[in-house]
Structure to design on (353 residues):
């Protein structure tokens, strides 16, 4: 037998090409019995369905949306906040039959998946504003939704108020009586792995706003503040940064971390030095990832609605795609700011002196 095509299956079953096509791409148009018969014949003939590229051209739909992440895709599989967010997006898309494609654009690699992958739209998740991948998505004029990004006119966004959220964590330490606080962070415009007096200079939205929030509470209270900036938001980096602060002759009595991952590293650094937490050192994180409650001591942190972010991002993007494909006039972009909550656990307490 020569090449098996849509017409081959249609001739064998005795139906039209369109009916066979519907069996693969629009099953609701057929009875269950007829669809099963067509698929059985297709399987017998070794036919896998219409060519995806041809189907995309015919329908003017890719059947896939992108999620643009930070530089490394490994982030999607190693950070529990990222996996929670992506899981929520995936669950929302499951009922639509739309696929999810993870995108990244390592600087200087020459790789441009955001330019080349066929997509109906994309979620941009905590990406630098000058990212080459983001620039390509803009050029393609795709429907976009921003998450943990600076809100822009015409693009729906879903954020938390990182500044207010971080302020609550810092104020908690102030209220406990801490007057010497270290900050373990990433993404600031400061030298790496060096103790410095922090400022709010950063092109990255999340670390910049969290630093503003911490300093909003600490500086008016007369708290001494020192920070260490790392290149990556990770547990290893948090351990190294916290170690630098804890090795100071007059070490801080408390640490604030950009994330629960970095806070976990801070707890390990304290353990390395037999510094009791919270007896001799308090540690607070950010995110309330599953890690926070697993740590010992359990971690005081700021809870953000990561699952809700993912769910809303997928819903908002699907609505934008539908409107674009219908040729509707874009509705006014909605900028949603979700609530956060300070969760006090066992890693913070009053200072010893």
């Amino acid at each position: 037998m020569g090449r098996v095509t849509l017409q081959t299956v249609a001739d064998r079953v005795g139906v039209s090409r369109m009916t066979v096509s519907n069996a693969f791409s629009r099953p609701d148009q057929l009875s269950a019995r007829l669809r099963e018969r067509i698929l059985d014949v297709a399987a017998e003939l070794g036919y896998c369905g219409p060519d995806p590229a041809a189907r995309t051209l015919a329908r003017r739909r890719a059947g896939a949306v992108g999620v643009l992440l930070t530089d490394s895709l490994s982030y999607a599989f190693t950070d529990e906040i990222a996996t929670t967010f992506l899981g929520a997006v995936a669950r929302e898309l499951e009922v639509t039959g739309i696929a999810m494609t993870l995108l990244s654009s390592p600087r200087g690699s020459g790789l441009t998946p955001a330019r080349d992958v066929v997509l109906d739209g994309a979620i941009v998740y905590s990406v630098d504003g000058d990212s080459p991948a983001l620039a390509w998505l803009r050029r393609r004029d795709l429907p976009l939704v921003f998450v943990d990004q600076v809100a822009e006119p015409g693009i729906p966004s879903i954020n938390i108020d990182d500044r207010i959220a971080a302020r609550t964590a810092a104020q908690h330490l102030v209220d406990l009586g801490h007057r010497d606080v270290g900050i373990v962070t990433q993404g600031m415009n400061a030298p790496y792995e060096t103790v410095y007096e922090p400022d709010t200079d950063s092109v990255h939205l999340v670390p910049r706003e969290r630093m503003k929030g911490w300093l909003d509470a600490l500086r008016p209270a007369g708290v001494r503040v020192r920070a260490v900036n790392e290149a990556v938001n990770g547990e290893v980096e948090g351990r190294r940064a916290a170690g630098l602060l804890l090795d100071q002759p007059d070490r801080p009595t408390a640490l604030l971390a950009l994330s629960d991952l970095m806070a976990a590293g801070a707890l390990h650094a304290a353990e390395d030095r037999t510094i009791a937490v919270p007896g001799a050192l308090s540690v607070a994180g950010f995110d309330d990832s599953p890690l926070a409650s697993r740590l010992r001591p359990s971690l005081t942190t700021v809870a953000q609605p990561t699952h809700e972010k993912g769910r809303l991002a997928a819903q908002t993007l699907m609505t934008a795609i539908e409107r674009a494909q219908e040729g509707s006039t874009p509705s006014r972009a909605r900028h949603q700011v979700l609530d956060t909550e300070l969760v006090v656990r066992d890693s913070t307490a009053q200072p010893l002196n």
Remarks:
- The longest helix spans residues 306-326.
